[in-house]
Design brief:
The structure holds 2 protein chains of 2 kinds. Chain A is mainly β. Chain A has one domain. Chain A is about 0% helix and about 45% strand. The model of chain A has no long low-confidence stretch (mean pLDDT about 85). In chain B, strands 3-4-6-8 form a 4-stranded mixed β-sheet, with no helix packed on it. Residues about 1-15, about 25-70 and about 90-95 of chain B have low confidence and may be disordered. Chain B is about 10% helix and about 20% strand. Chain B folds into 2 domains: about 30-95, no CATH class; about 100-165, no CATH class. Chain B is an alpha/beta fold. Classes of the chains: A mainly beta, B alpha/beta.
Amino acid sequence: MPLTLDQATALEHVGDTVYIGFNDDLERISFPKLKSIGGALIIEHNGALKEILLPALERITKYLHIHDNAGLVVVELPKLRELGGEVSLVGNPNLNIVKLSVASAPAKATKLEVKDCGQPVYVSLHIKTAT
Amino acid sequence: MSSTIGPKGPSDAATGRVLQFRRPEPTTPAVQTSPTSPTSPSTAPSEAAPASSAAVFDAVAGQASSIASRVEGAALSQLVARLRATSVDSPQVKNAGPVVVSTAEGPVLSGSVAIDTRKALHELDGVVRIGGSLAVEGTYKNADLLALRDLKTIEGRLTFEGLRSH
């Protein structure tokens, strides 16, 4: 039975980094009400992971790293407004749908790194640099 | 023909000879402790303490900011007693686990918690706030993770690492 991380349906705020890594049986990550992360968001080495769905996430204080998730297909963070660091999508060979929109970010956060993602990755990324 | 089996030592560029590996001389390891709560560098004035000192205690800051050399036996006991006497928040003297407190918003867990069993996870059922960090690892069913359904806020770090399905 595959494992899913979608039970924390009330979670709205995490004060520091969110790290989800090395979970062999994990297929889905979904925090439907999560609005803010006071650190980085790091999701790495989850071989069976297919979806990352964070529909309400508006703020990541540091960076976003999604690395080495062999089965990952979909990443959705459609409401991201503030991002404090770079976006790095590396080593996700099946990733082909990324919905990510950043409305405000410091200049250093405008770096987008996409490597070893195999198929064409369609990233909807709109970054408006904060002044 | 040269053998390709076994490690080769570093070669001497001048003579072409293969030199033996030589272990560096052992040095006394420094024992570092730090308070559980994050401190800014400005509150740790004793980091540049000489290595010969057994323990450096910054009475002004009220914190054990560094222990620069090995502390063993009686010296360690004395240090722990001293830290206890001064109510220093140190991981070596603080053993109290997180406590669930009833509040108007619901049950609140006061500190950080690391979960690695189904039983421990179920103890989070109904908790709405965690005052520290939450780390979850181990083997679970999806239904076990429903224990997190009321959680609204985690004030520290959230970690899911090494999860497996039951």
